[in-house]
Amino acid sequence: MFSPLTHSTRTRSRPARPSWPASLGLSLALGMAAPLALMPSAPAQAQAIAPAPPLTPDTAQAFVDGRVPELLAEHGAPGLTVSIVADGEPLAGAAHGVADLADGTPMDEGSHALPTASIAKSFTAVAVLQLAEQGEVDLHEDVNTYLPEELRVPDTHPGEPVTLHHLLTHTPGFDERTDMDDPEDTAGQRDLAEFLRDNTPERIFPPGRYTAYSNYGTGLAGYVVQEVSGVPFEEYAERNVFAPLGMDGTEFGQLHELAQEHDLVTGHGPDGAPAALVHIPLVPAGAAVTSTGDMSRFMLALLNGGELDGERVLGTESVAMMLDRQFEHHPDATAMGYGTYEWRTGPPRGVGHGGDLDGIHTGYLLLPELDAGVFVAVNGDDTDPEAGAGLLHDLRFAVLQAFADEFGPADARTGSEAAPEADPGDDLSVYSGSYVTTRRAVEGTARIITLFDNLAVRDAGDGTLRVRGVMIPQERWLPVGDGVFVGQDSGERLVFTVEDGRAAAVYLDANPTNGYDRTSALAGPGLHLITVVVALLVLLTGTAHLRRPRGAAGVAAAVSASLTALACLVSVGLVVYAVTDMNRLQDWVFGDSVVLTMPLASAVPLALTTAGFAVTAWVRGWWGEGWWGRIRRVHYSLLPLAALAVIAVGVQYGLVWPQG
């Protein structure tokens, strides 16, 4: 999925939601877009199931004409289009609902163009692998070999260079960048090279250690294609990827420009309002349009080893590299391919990619063992909050899941499995701790991501784990061996990596594109939240000093304390408000707004002034004719300390100093 892009000092409007489906751009927590695999690899309690029906033109058409419109009605999105391929040919396609709520235009799978969002990353991977086949690039060579000096990746980890392999598997170790150019400021918009030059991310992990979904990384891989081939990336993809496959309705470019040439569907928010077409400087990461028929051709080419209608775009070995496991957290967990990721380990195994922009959600799923694939695009957010089982289950994923359940149920390999059982005698303390998302920013207000996208893992004492987190079902987590735990009710899986006898990271099997690495207790968001709550309770008592202060100094001290408390309370209140309105939070975080930073920025001088009054009160206890009694002095002294505690937490999340 496509998430907000990278650092800029220019004015921006709200960008596309990322994967966090993760419109999971502010990570999964903020409901932005982040790619996710939403098909549990192994149910907590497998059941005997009826054999899957054969996938034929008739059964496929029955699915798209019957089950798909049922799901559309359940989720309440405006419309969707879907296609199914198998055995080397298109089997079925259909469109349901409307392409634009404003005029009621019916969705048409034959004529409407669709923003791809991050599905475009699969196209970019094809381009990179073509150059690797030709010997023009080496997937395991330092990527700086192919870049001009101004775009080179810093040597943050000497001896551990970032490679194309890392870029294609989202393992370069880059921090998350969330800024985008203003789509209305045409003069200030940058091309791919300019944006990459201005926005080099921090390398917060050694390459190959963790996945951390990176639009910047895919953009950089696309620039390598441009630099090595000597032609603009968009032109290279048209000549070498789309034209040979007969994908006449697919091309890279800015959506507002492509909309002039293609009958583009309108994206919609939960309220039905049309979503704006954003400007995406990192074109290879998600700036493209396609059609339902073209995606069928793309899936058929991948299932056929890179060839379609006698035209070959990739060799069979390269296609295998796209679809096979190129980076894994754990041998039993979903893994990353090149420009793809596993939706489930199977069998039958599922692999593909998803994409998200404001009001647009796309995904394709291949089941190579069945020689089958499905593509779906939805032009709006779910409006029925009860339709899905949580943030990971929107209409797009519901369709893909239903297809897999219908024609290739994952547990058909065994028929039945024993449910995992907890042993109250097990010591699970090795897994206990605080973990924060690996897809995180290190500067700006986007650091607020980790305040919400984190996990608190505790040994429940009965042989199970207790896990708290926005993306995690509230249930018992039962061990199934080798660091793998299964949700008792959901069947979702948590997979831990253990180093030196202690869990270093944990992954939700539904999302191989990023995980959660262990952080210290002092740096854990849980402790920060407790600190803020306690500090606010202290600050709320600061109004007591407004009652009958004596003398000018007493009045000034009381006013200073009250303003300090007010600034802190307003800051926290704004964050709480924003969390209840993710669109508002995205506006503030991605638009260089000072709304989130100004309250605590003003609290800094106020807190220092209040601290000065507190010191004076102790030095000159007689000041104010006894108004500064010992108890009052102790209480007053706690106020600047509480404010400074709130400010210190705010600093951790970029909520103090205005950005830009």
From TrEMBL:
Q: Which SUPFAM superfamilies match?
A: beta-lactamase/transpeptidase-like
What Gene3D superfamilies does this protein's entry cite? DD-peptidase/beta-lactamase superfamily
Task: Give me the segments passing through the membrane.
Answer: 521-540, 552-580, 600-623, 635-655
Q: Which Pfam families match?
A: Beta-lactamase
Superkingdom of origin: Bacteria
Residues annotated as domain Beta-lactamase-related: 65-388
In this chain, the stretch annotated as Disordered covers 1-20, 411-430
**Key words of the record:** Membrane, Transmembrane, Transmembrane helix
**What PANTHER family does this protein's entry cite?**
BETA-LACTAMASE-RELATED DOMAIN-CONTAINING PROTEIN, D-ALANYL-D-ALANINE-CARBOXYPEPTIDASE/ENDOPEPTIDASE AMPH
Quote the protein name from its UniProt record: CubicO group peptidase (Beta-lactamase class C family)
Q: Which organism is it from?
A: Nocardiopsis metallicus
